[in-house]
Amino acid sequence: MFRVSLRNLVKNKLYICKEYHIQPSELDRMVYYEYEWILEEINILQKEQEKQQESQNKEYDSMRSSMNPSNMMKNMHSSIPNYGNIKMPTLQIPKF
């Protein structure tokens, strides 16, 4: 004989109903092993989605770091040709 935690059962049913738009009565009609299989499949799907989200976050972070304004300014300064030491002209204003 096995034990079922009623608290977990209710939490899982609520999650399934909310996320997958299934009526609670439909879950109650299921044989318990079908319900367990659904839970297993949901767990598998969640893990796959987490992996995809992690890879998308890494990709987004790399794009964001390459688009950083300070990095862009450094790249612009390195691409500007160096004409040596250019000095600003000095103006001498006559005194009266």
Could you walk me through the main structural features you see in this protein, from its secondary elements to its overall organization?
This protein has about 100 residues and is mostly helical. The protein has a domain at about 5-65. It is about 70% helix and about 0% strand. The protein is built from four helices and no strands. It has helices spanning about 5-20, 25-30, 30-65, 70-80. The protein is rod-shaped and about 105 Å long. The termini are far apart.
SSE layout and pairings?
Layout: H1 6-20, H2 24-29, H3 32-66, H4 69-79
The outline comes out as rod-shaped
Classify the beta-strand content into a percent band: under 5%
N-to-C SSE string, H for helix and E for strand: HHHH
Structural class: mainly alpha
Q: Outline of this structure?
A:
This protein is mostly helical and 96 residues long.
Question: Any descriptors?
Answer:
mainly alpha; 96 residues; 4 helices; 0% strand; rod-shaped
